[in-house]
Amino acid sequence: MRVSLAVGCLAFVVAAQASPQSTPASSGSAASHANTTVLPAVTVTGEQPGPGLWKVSKGDHVMWVLGTLTPLPRGMEWHSTEVEDTLAHSQEVLEAPKAEVKADVGFFGKLLLMPSVYSARKNPGGATLQQILPPQMYARWETVKPEYFGNDRSVESWRPILVALKLYRKALDKAGLTQRNDINQLVFNLADKHGVKRVPVTYKLVVEHPRAALDAIKQTNLHDISCFNQTLDTVQNDMGSLTQRANAWSTGDIQALRGFTVNDRYQSCLIAVINAEFAEQLGLHDLPKRMEQAWLQAAEAALANNTQTFAVLPMEQVLASDGYLAQLQARGYTVEAPE
Fold first, then answer.
1. Which of 27, 167, 232, 302 is surrounded by the most beta carbons within 10 Å?
2. 254-268: per-residue pLDDT in tens?
3. How far apart are CA 7 and CA 266, in angstroms?
4. For 207, which DSSP code?
5. Residue 146 CB neighbour total at 10 angstroms
6. What is the torsional sign of CA 58, 63, 64, 70?
């Protein structure tokens, strides 16, 4: 079974499925955040083509890559004739890398009903956000909280990383954006429609002792204040830019997409998990590297065995100077961006 909030902070790793949230870098001092007025950006709606395809080749073997993105406009419907035609003439569809957590289903089913599971989302020792966060950061949180949580006091006892996750989702919803517009699934549906073999790239993490893992999570301080701070920055300053980035993907504006840099929000939240004391025990400490190696191995096999392959990757791994496509290029493959 896939584990999310029920095992506390593993949610950030599992839910992300190695899709880093690239957002425009924020600017300005913490003291100015409360006075910042951000005008809402308008999200595109209706059918949109998305970006063109990247071409990776060696000899006469080629892999066409679609860079995917989250969040995207909530009212957008994606359809690309280029994608469907290219996919239909491919021998395989290489899926984006993802992580799955496996545990004893019978035991975990019972474990999810235990009150101790829900207490795992709380800070060790019953600490509150006011006690954990620096005063200036907590003051910023108090200005943001009413807009998204109203008078809900329950989150004050949650770990900062989980409050950040919930705040981010609420902010996306208010901005007309969604993480549920799953382009990957639409591509997989097209593959099934045309009878093209799908090749999953999944790193499976087996939790042999779920109760011990839960206890370890409950007792661990995650050092996730940076994650919380970066999420506040994003919500206060960058929602309009997130919308612009989503629109750029929807309309296929590659030049605009290249102009967005990676905010430390995702990286900070990921580091908080993989550097925690329980991470090595559960095999999380080198999870990103393992998933990277798994995808690169699968991509090279597909390029060797197929005349044409179709692949989906998070846009960051397509555009980054050290991303997956850059690594294929370093290994001798030719990589061409869409016109």
1. 232
2. 999 888 754 546 666
3. 19
4. E
5. 10
6. negative
Q: d(Cα 140, Cα 133) in Å, to the nearest integer?
A: 10
Quick one: pLDDT band at residue 202, thresholds 50, 70, 90?
confident
Q: Closest Cα partner for 240 from 312, 172, 153, 308?
A: 172
Q: How far is it, in rounded angstroms, from Cα 81 to Cα 84?
A: 5
How far is CA 269 from each of CA 144, 168, 184, 251, 279, rounded to the nearest angstrom? 19, 12, 23, 30, 13
The pLDDT value given to residue 287? 73
pLDDT winner (highest mean) among 2-6, 49-53, 219-223: 49-53
Q: How far is CA 122 from CA 10, 77, 106, 113, 126, in A?
A: 14, 38, 25, 17, 7
With beta carbons less than 8 A apart as the criterion, state whether 100 and 204 touch.
yes
126 neighbors 157 (Cβ within 8 angstroms): yes
The span from the CA of 52 to the CA of 315, in Å, is 12
Whole-model pTM: value is 0.78
Cβ partners under 8 Å of residue 295, min gap 6? 94, 96, 97, 201, 313, 324
DSSP 263: P
Cis ω before 288 (30° cut-off from 0): no
Strand partners, 66: 312
Question: Can you list the alpha helix ranges (DSSP code H) found in the chain?
Answer: 10-16, 81-88, 105-111, 115-119, 129-132, 135-149, 160-174, 183-193, 210-219, 225-237, 239-251, 254-258, 264-274, 277-282, 287-305, 315-319, 324-330
DSSP annotation string for 150-181: TT--GGGGB-HHHHHHHHHHHHHHHTTEES--
